[in-house]
Amino acid sequence: MAAKDVNYREQALKMFPWVCARCAREFSGKQLRMLTVHHKDHNHDHNPADGSNWELLCVYCHDNEHQRYLEADARQDVSRDEHVLATSHPFAGLAALLKERE
């Protein structure tokens, strides 16, 4: 793994909860290594400091995401600019819950 890869992974792990954005599985301890950084636009050189191009995915969901992308590209159903984002929102309402604790 290149140094820049480790850098953006470390940044993403500090910014986001350790939960897969697709399957909502939680990670900690030794299993944290199974949580990867996915580039939403599939451009590994596009690493904005605010993490807006990243999402944490488990290795299984990450592999699935890339496979779907490759298959769609092969069929030419979806252009590289029309990336389909997740429909799941595992943290919807989290801010309200945290606010209630205050």
UniProtKB/TrEMBL annotation:
Keyword set, alphabetical order? Hydrolase, Nuclease
Coiled-coil residue spans: none
What is stated as this protein's family in its record? Belongs to the HNH nuclease family.
The family database entries (PANTHER family) matched by this protein are listed as: HNH NUCLEASE YAJD-RELATED
Alphabetical list of SMART domains matching this protein = HNHc
Q: What is this protein called?
A: Putative HNH nuclease YajD
Give one Pfam hit by family name. Answer: HNH
Specify the HNH nuclease domain's residue ranges: 7-63
Question: Any idea which GO molecular function terms this record carries?
Answer: endonuclease activity; hydrolase activity; nucleic acid binding; zinc ion binding
Q: Does the keyword Lipoprotein apply?
A: no
Q: What are the record's GO terms for cellular component?
A: cytosol
